[in-house]
Amino acid sequence: MSELDNYAYELPRELIAQQPLPKRSDARLMVVDRRLGTIMHSHVRDVGEFLTPKDRIVFNDTRVVPARLLGSRQRTGGRWEGLFLREDEHGHWWILGKTRGKLAAGETIQITNSQKQEDVILHLVARLPDGGWLARPETSEPALQALHRVGHVPLPRYIQAPRNEKKDQERYQTVFARTPGAVAAPTAGLHFTKDLLRQLEQGGIRHHFVTLHVGLDTFRPVKAARLEEHQMHSEWCELAEEAAHGLRECKAEHGRVVAVGTTVMRVLETAASRGEIRAWQGATDLFIRPGFTFRAVDSLLTNFHLPRTTLLVLVRTFGGDELIQKAYQEAIRQRYRFFSYGDAMLIL
């Protein structure tokens, strides 16, 4: 039995949320109190009842880019589906691709746009160590500009419901998204509406933003036999000085720093790695696992995560292994909705 088997659990397929709720903040909220060892049931719209004016809530303002690509192999005509990951300093695209047969360096992929017309051509340059591809696009325009013409909303594969591009563009994006770069949504933030943000502010609960551009590796299952052997890929993140100052103030006043999502947790704990929350900009490959010392975050609001992932390891490390396992079992019994479009948990 490997160490990762401890992070496996059985989930009824019907509990994987396929559609977002009509109103974001109507999602259920499981409230887990680590001090008391208790589990309560509420809704995200009532999250302010569990916070005080001394607390500061922190969101990730990354914006999901239309990273899903559709096209065909020019050599065979076979269908191809891919995911844009990032553009490097040489203008190359780092992508994942799926097709029948085996791709080879030197092949070309014809990408079609939202009107199903032939558009950008990608030349596969080299296979990347993680199984993706380095590709050279036949265009001089910035990747983000091209993606807004040829890309689609990158919904996770476990969402099998029929796609509605216009609806997905609105719902698979937080209401405060402003910094483009993510290929997956910071899903805990999807529950918040502008009205709920105003309601929290009126209750004296201030908020700050960080940025972490969510990459696919955040969600990939851990395949190493031991957690310490898993290699986290780095993601770009930023904590501005104004926000860092506000969070230091919060700590000084004995308030709680409430991270909305595991991405926010990773930014703040990276920024506090030397003991105090300081402004930070750069890459983080922080993997929060048992034995980690938390210096920044006091409470975490997060969705329910896939088994055998670094996200589940993080949540169980923060919330307490036995208590969070119990909370997941309770969520299944109570028919909570899981994963990206699902319900949430607040760990106090």
Description:
The two termini are 32 Å apart. The chain is an alpha/beta fold and 348 residues long. The model has no long low-confidence stretch (mean pLDDT 94). It has 2 domains: 3-64 and 170-347, QueA-like; 68-150, Thrombin, subunit H (Beta Barrel). The strands form 3 sheets. The protein has a 9-stranded mixed beta sheet with strand order 2-1-17-16-14-3-12-13-15, covered by helices on one side. It has a 6-stranded antiparallel barrel with strand order 5-6-7-10-9-8. Helices cover 20% and strands 28% of the residues. Helix 6 (310-319) crosses helix 7 (321-333). The longest helix has 13 residues, at 321-333.
Low-confidence stretches: none
Q: What gyration radius follows from the Cα positions, in whole Å?
A: 21 Å
Q: Tell how many strands the DSSP assignment holds.
A: 17
End-to-end CA span: 32 Å
Helix content: 10-25%
CATH superfamily of the largest domain: QueA-like
* Shape call: globular
Order of helices and strands: EEEEEEEEEEHHEHEEHEHEEHHE
Named at the architecture level, the CATH assignment of the largest domain is 3-Layer(aba) Sandwich
Instruction: Count structural domains.
Output: 2
Integer average pLDDT? 94
Strand arrangement, major sheet: 2-1-17-16-14-3-12-13-15
Largest sheet: 9 strands, mixed
Which percent band covers the strand fraction? 25-35%
Please count the helical segments.
7
Give the structural class: alpha/beta
CATH domain topology of the largest domain: QueA-like
CATH class of the largest domain: Alpha Beta
